[in-house]
Amino acid sequence: MECLIRLAQPSDLKVYTDLLQVVYQSAYTNDKIGLTPDCFSKEIFATKDTQKYLELRLVNTVQQKTWLTFAGAKIVGSVSCIIKSNDEAELAGFYVDPKYQGKGLGKQLYNMALKFAGNRDLLLDIYTHNAKAIEMYKKWGWKLDKSRGEDGYFARHWNEWPQGVEAKCMYMRLKQRSTVTRKEI
Questions:
Q1: Percent of the chain with pLDDT over 70
Q2: CATH code, domain with 157
Q3: What is the span of the domain harbouring residue 95?
Q4: Is 180 among the domain residues?
Q5: What DSSP state is assigned to residue 31?
Q6: Is residue 185 situated within a structural domain?
Q7: What count of other Cβ atoms lies within 10 Å of the Cβ of residue 183?
Q8: Handedness of CA 58, 61, 63, 66 (dihedral sign)
Q9: pLDDT tens-digit map of 14-44
Q10: N or C: where does the chain have the smaller number of CB atoms within 10 Å of the terminal CB?
Q11: Do residues 182 and 114 lie in contact, with contact meaning Cβ atoms separated by under 8 Å?
């Protein structure tokens, strides 16, 4: 599939917000724990706090890069990598529109983040009910990071969600510092 991958720009905020809203609603809705589609509505993604958070993701610096993938004029993927220290970087905002998954776009974005991270360990956090993504990360060598949270787990609650609604999340780590070479996907 022919797509354009480029660094994000602050002017991408609307399309970036739209992508994340669609992906969150698709991947994270779970009625059993109270995460209904309304928890990831366009209105929630338009709140001041959420927009401020997303704006920060679109700023590229020496310590942070965000790449966006476009199929024509449509944004279909994103990934952010944030250097936390000499030893660690965070993989964040890694999303591919469900209609474009399985076409290799995510692998291209992932490899860009790996390259930017260098030989640092990579960290991420993820909703535990997102089994498809967890299996993908495990396939790529990621493991539960028991050194963070309570044995690697924590609960997340967005202020915009109904009171009492929490999602169980886990920390994952890709060890890279101890390896001489790294296998890119």
A1: 95
A2: 3.40.630.30
A3: 4-174
A4: no
A5: G
A6: no
A7: 8
A8: positive
A9: 999 999 999 999 999 999 999 999 999 999 9
A10: N
A11: yes
